[in-house]
Amino acid sequence: MEQLETGRLILREWNMNDAADLYEYAKSKKVGPMAGWKPHANIEETKKILQMFIEENETWAICLKATGKVIGSIGLHCSSREHERSLGYVLSEDFWGKGLVYEAAKCIMEYAFRILKLEIISVVHFPFNIQSKRVIEKLGFQYIETKEKATKIFDGTEYDDVCYAITKEEFYNLNL
Ligand SMILES: CC(C)(COP(=O)(O)OP(=O)(O)OC[C@H]1O[C@@H](n2cnc3c(N)ncnc32)[C@H](O)[C@@H]1OP(=O)(O)O)[C@@H](O)C(=O)NCCC(=O)NCCS
Predict the structure, then answer these.
(1) What is the pLDDT along the chain (176 residues), one digit of tens a residue?
(2) pLDDT of res. 72
(3) CA-CA distance, 58 to 101, in Å (whole number)?
(4) How far is ligand 1, taken at its centre, from the CA of residue 96, in Å?
(5) Distance between CA atoms of 176 and 72, rounded to whole angstroms?
(6) Separation of 131 CA from ligand 1 center, angstroms?
(7) What region holds the N-acetyltransferase domain (predicted)?
(8) Closest CA to ligand 1's atom 29
(9) For the chain, how many structural domains are there in total?
(10) C-alpha to C-alpha distances, 97 to 13, 101, 132, nearest whole angstrom
(11) pLDDT value at residue 171
(12) Which of 37, 56, 78, 122 is an S-S bond match for 165, by CB 3.0 to 4.6 Å?
């Protein structure tokens, strides 16, 4: 996984030393459930997830350049189509509202289209996740459809997926 850099962030691969930083935000009830996953109950659970991140190699750690602290994650997940990937992200609540995920996602999308030669990137949010909706809009994604009860989350609740996509041409034309 290539390390990437933005004005305020380093996007890099995970290592097991990141467990404490990951646990710090992954235990929050306000973070994971918005993306469909269960808050981590303890650091042992975090270490298992971290091991999975390392093995899957689809997710970058979002690190603050100023301190080196890991404050979130961003990933490009494989989809059924060859030149398409799905974007996912979470950020520690302490750093919300500073445009950091927009900054990280813009960098990842540039990398995905230019280096990985993707043709399309998709993203989804749950209907109540207005924060994620705003990030998606600011990145120029186009609304595609809402799939009813498409995701069953960890506690069994079913949510609609609000689905968006952006093509390489659309992204380049935006000149973000
Ligand atoms: C979604 C998320 C990644 C957004 O990251 P971010 O870097 O805070 O995004 P931005 O700074 O661009 O803010 C996005 C919107 O969140 C809202 N917001 C900002 N600070 C906020 C805060 N402290 N509390 C609640 N909402 C806030 C604003 O409406 C903002 O929109 P605006 O730019 O029009 O003002 C982050 O909120 C998060 O990690 N949420 C939990 C996990 C999640 O939802 N992941 C995505 C699953 S689809």
Answers:
(1) 899 999 999 999 999 999 999 999 999 999 999 999 999 999 999 999 999 999 999 999 999 999 999 999 999 998 888 899 999 999 999 999 999 999 999 999 999 999 999 999 999 999 999 999 999 999 999 999 999 999 999 999 999 999 999 999 999 999 88
(2) 98
(3) 17
(4) 5
(5) 22
(6) 4
(7) 9-169
(8) 131
(9) 1
(10) 24, 9, 11
(11) 97
(12) 122
The pocket around ligand 1, CB under 6 angstroms, is made up of 31, 34-35, 89-91, 96-102, 125, 129, 131-132, 134-135
Range of the domain at 98: 4-174
Probe target for ligand 1 pocket from 96, 103, 164, with the most ligand atoms within 8 Å of CB = 96
Determine the pLDDT at residue 168. 97
pTM of the full structure: 0.96
Which residue, by CA, sits nearest to atom 20 of ligand 1? 97
CATH number at residue 71: 3.40.630.30
Q: What is the pLDDT of residue 70?
A: 98
Going from the Cα of 97 to the center of ligand 1, the distance in angstroms, rounded, reads: 6
CA distance 37 to 173: 34
For residue 103, the ligand 1 atom closest to its alpha carbon is 7
